């Protein structure tokens, strides 16, 4: 398959005049979603009511959608299931992993991880007590820090601020050599670049779907458990839909088969319907093409900005193997620069203290969009258009 | 306000020819929902993209919707927030409560509780270790079982099978007298009958919204924390949106103010939009009217069925104070009887081993619906219409 990205671009409903480089925060609306969600509301919920759980396939949706995502992250069929939020899935994976490695007390992560992962790990350690600790090192020290005390590593492959990418295969190999398990957070990987969970022998992975997978605000998360572990993990979040027979209403919990046990409560059917429709776009995409085009776009953006904006300092690694699908620059006035960009219709985002961040999704971003973004940014920097009071007043959510 | 239930009935989109007595499992579609969800998809997500978090008020939606539910359950403004599933909220409330009562090791629940609550409590005890135990007694033994060893009670007010209702005020008073905290599961209470969390001095409450609140399949759950506790609880599920300053991206967790700290991850905006629209119906409802009408409907149904169907044994308490808004009968062939009813357009549901269950929601069920359901059930029993092979083959989900 050769991917036609002009065709995928037409599958999105993008606002006129906007260059949207924030798909790494919230992906845009795929055209197929509105009808699919309306169908779920009116034809399924409205007409089928309670029978929708069977007749409309709602009960199987978390598994069926999980299989569609599995293909994009190099996971085995039947190894991924949808539900909850990424933070909950982090907790669930961590709680399972530490129980599988009962002699050890350390969860290892890095300071480049998304803070919620660290918060959830910290909360779990407090609940576990008994000396469980979150050890956080600098990203470049992760390999060295994996030793015989580590029960599990909790690493986000692609850094949400800089776009720096960890070496999943090497870290996983090192972890296994030291007797540790691995949890990979794919928030900025799934749909951004090829991932090979099975090939890397990853143990667990988690991710969200509202970024590069375009499921919409608050779309459900996913969890991957390697098939070799799936019948061994004992879920800490032992909800009824992860039970072997939920509708037997037994008083005692018995985990379901394989990945099914990672279900917790009732799945969010409307959000799953949106995600299911959003995933149709991927039927037309070869991941190798996506990566090649993403790298071409990010190279083009880096070259353009560096040529025109000497005050912006590249925060993203230049090496292709060491970055995801975003480009970030540092500048002390980053917040105001991003506000000025947004006012001109070039939408990226800002991450404290000084990072402006641009996501490049070949599905709906092309070279023309890159050139426009470069030109607008160059003008803002050359004419100091960011130096206005209205761009410096910080909004509550950026 | 005097409630006009013929007006609320017109606010629902009910399938023609169906008498839907399963709103206690999945509420029907309120007419306002489809447009509101379509607006959230197309106008908010589609046009505002990332700025929807501020411009469309997505970030505040869990709190704003929580306040609308607070009014229905006798909770103080600012004490309820939406998110996750009921099972997750049970875990979150339990983990907070046991930490507030650190000298004690017992979670007390009863065998009439919904199994997922018990499973989640069991999972939490395993994660906590250190002697934490779930003690489960018969529903009628709860009062007696609350002693000085109990850290927290986890009680569902209305039994999902029988409709039996616990005495929230008495149990809460007894728990406090013995130094225990209380968590009330309102799955079959919120929107079913008046609840007075503040008046009962409840400590925590949790509930789902897809039953009597009609939010649709997989609608988000809610959690209540009494204002006297809200700035003291330390969340175990310490997600970034419960942080004091989520967008500071600090490496260390600091809980947000009050109920805000019970947020975890990114809220499900499409499901929240559906719920928000569904709650409009309640602007026209006085809870006292709802209760009076619900009791009249359930009395009418009990009297009609008992007169016509001597083989069905009432499982629901007759005493008004001791029941919710559903009526259940027992029969060894309950499953087949319910299938026969559904085939005739009278939709209730079956709960193993022998319970047929009927929910009565005055919002869209009136005396004519009750009479029709009685007549159909009477004919099925009199003519043994349930005794056919097609009604006895069990589906996967009932």
From TrEMBL, chains A, B:
Assembly mode: Homodimer.
Source taxonomy: Bacteria, Pseudomonadati, Pseudomonadota, Alphaproteobacteria, Rhodobacterales
Flavoprotein keyword on record: no
Gene3D superfamilies on file: Aspartate Aminotransferase, domain 1, Type I PLP-dependent aspartate aminotransferase-like (Major domain)
Family under the similarity heading: Belongs to the kynureninase family.
Database matches in HAMAP family: Kynureninase
Protein name according to UniProt: Kynureninase
Ranges annotated as spanning the membrane: none
Enzyme class: hydrolase
EC assignment: 3.7.1.3
Binding locations of pyridoxal 5'-phosphate: 86-87, 114-117, 156, 185, 188, 210, 240, 266
Presence of keyword NAD: no
Entry keyword set: Hydrolase, Pyridine nucleotide biosynthesis, Pyridoxal phosphate
Cross-referenced PANTHER family: KYNURENINASE (PTHR14084)
N6-(pyridoxal phosphate)lysine, modified sites: 211
Pfam families listed in its UniProt record: KYNU_C
GO cellular component, one term: cytoplasm
One of the record's GO molecular function terms: pyridoxal phosphate binding
Catalytic activity annotation: 3-hydroxy-L-kynurenine + H2O = 3-hydroxyanthranilate + L-alanine + H(+); L-kynurenine + H2O = anthranilate + L-alanine + H(+)
GO biological process: anthranilate metabolic process; L-kynurenine catabolic process; L-tryptophan catabolic process to kynurenine; NAD+ biosynthetic process; quinolinate biosynthetic process
Record pathway: Cofactor biosynthesis; NAD(+) biosynthesis; quinolinate from L-kynurenine: step 2/3; Amino-acid degradation; L-kynurenine degradation; L-alanine and anthranilate from L-kynurenine: step 1/1
């Amino acid at each position: 398959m050769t991917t036609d990205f002009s065709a995928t671009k037409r599958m999105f409903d993008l606002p006129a005049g906007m260059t949207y480089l924030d798909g790494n925060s919230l992906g845009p609306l795929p055209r197929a979603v509105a009808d699919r969600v309306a169908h779920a509301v009116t034809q399924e919920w409205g007409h089928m009511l309670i029978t929708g759980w069977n007749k409309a396939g709602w009960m199987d949706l978390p598994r069926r959608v999980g299989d569609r995502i599995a293909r994009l992250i190099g996971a085995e069929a039947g190894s991924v299931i949808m539900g909850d939020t990424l933070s909950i899935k982090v907790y669930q994976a961590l709680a399972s992993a530490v129980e599988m490695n009962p002699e050890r007390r350390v969860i290892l992560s890095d300071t480049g991880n998304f803070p919620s992962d660290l918060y959830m790990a910290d909360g779990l350690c407090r609940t576990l007590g008994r000396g469980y600790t979150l050890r956080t090192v600098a990203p470049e020290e992760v390999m060295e820090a994996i030793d015989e005390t580590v029960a599990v590593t909790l690493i986000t492959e692609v850094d949400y601020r800089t776009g720096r990418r960890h070496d999943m295969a090497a870290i996983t190999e090192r972890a296994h050599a030291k007797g540790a398990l691995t949890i990979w957070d794919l928030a900025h990987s799934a749909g951004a670049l090829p991932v090979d969970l099975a090939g890397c022998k990853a143990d667990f992975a988690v991710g969200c779907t509202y970024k590069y997978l375009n499921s919409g605000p608050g779309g459900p998360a996913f969890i991957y458990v390697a098939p070799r572990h799936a019948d061994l993990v004992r879920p800490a979040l032992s909800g009824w839909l992860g039970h072997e027979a939920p509708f037997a209403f037994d008083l005692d919990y018995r985990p379901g088969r394989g990945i099914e046990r990672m279900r917790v409560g009732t799945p969010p059917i409307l959000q799953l319907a949106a995600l299911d429709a959003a995933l149709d776009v991927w039927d037309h995409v070869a991941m190798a093409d996506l990566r090649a085009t993403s790298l071409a776009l990010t190279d083009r953006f880096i070259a353009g900005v560096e040529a025109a904006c000497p005050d912006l300092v590249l925060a993203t690694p230049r090496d292709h193997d060491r970055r995801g699908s975003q480009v970030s620059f540092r500048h002390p006035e980053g917040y105001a620069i991003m506000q000025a960009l947004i006012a001109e219709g070039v939408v990226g985002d800002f991450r404290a203290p000084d990072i402006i961040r641009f996501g490049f999704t070949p599905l709906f971003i092309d070279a023309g969009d890159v050139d426009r973004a470069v030109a607008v940014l160059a003008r803002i920097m050359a004419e100091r258009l960011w130096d206005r009071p209205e761009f410096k007043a910080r909004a509550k959510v950026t």
